[in-house]
Amino acid sequence: MWRARGDLNPGSPAPQASVFIQTARKNAVDSRFYSRLRARINGRFAKEISLLPPKTEELITNSLIALKANGLSQPVLKTISEKLRQIARHADLNQPETVKHYISNQDHLKNSTKNKFVYVYHKFCQVNGIEWKLPKYQEKETVPIIPTTENVNAIINTATEQYALVFTLLKETGASGQELHNATRNDIDTERGIIRIIGVKRHASATYKLKRQTAEMLRNYIHDHPSDQPFPTPKNMAEAWRKARKNAAKKLCKPELNIIILKSLRNYSGAQLYYKTRDPIHVMRHLRHKRLETTMHYIRAISTNDEEEEYTVRATADLNEIKTLIEQGFTKADEIDGLHIYKKRK
After folding, report:
1. For a surface tag, which of 180, 213, 301, 337 has the fewest beta carbons within 10 Å of its beta carbon?
2. Which CATH number describes the domain made up of 150-299?
3. In the chain, where does the domain assigned CATH 1.10.443.10 lie?
4. How far apart are alpha carbons 339 and 167 in whole angstroms?
């Protein structure tokens, strides 16, 4: 006979038993489902997620320690670590021919990416005394994306206040995301509007004088971000850029904005300086290239035919207005009857 307090066990035992049985059956089904799912995942991605043998892990770790002692930066060491582990899952790191075979058979990779794997393995061979002949994959020369001022500003204007400053700094200095992230408070002079960029990836270092409006934005930003490294990580910068780009493309019905990547801001910065000066050496110093040949790769992508370029033109005789135009990026084109003619590429 069923005896229980009504407030604790409402109803007869039959419905409760039924609920219990249904719950048990559901849990059993769920358990079998997730077991099958895990088995499928493990079977499909076992090669990708499997751990390397302890000896291989030790070999890679010791190699990274040696490379760090040779002066390689942390971002470079991270890339080397990831690629070495990828190679080690498919080839014997101590056998160069098996590594060559693995890299050459990655038909889905661009030759530029294959050369990166070659570079990584070459560094590994150097610190482990392994002799091998480096393969060289012929890379196709790509044309850098150089966006217009209108499109760059359209994306920046869609970003949050924080990232609008970050993107503006990248646009004015030509720094990479990693370089800006590495900047500390000691590299920033908020009073004079100056920021120092320490080069990575063989770039030189340089100091940049910011525009007045950008300097003011930076002062406010530093006040709200008091940490020693106030700028976000390159990964977060890229995510914020993609989000702003997507929103701008949708809002303005301009799908072409989606091909503009964060790195394009560096290309844009160099292109704008070339439009103003027509001086490759000046551009080389601005982008902190160590070889003029690298700079010319970008300049070749820039149209130098003034007849094909569109400009915004202003004419004035007022000194204050001239100063404002220069700050906005206008350059003097001519002078007629006391009027100063200024132009800026659209």
Report:
1. 337
2. 1.10.443.10
3. 150-299
4. 35
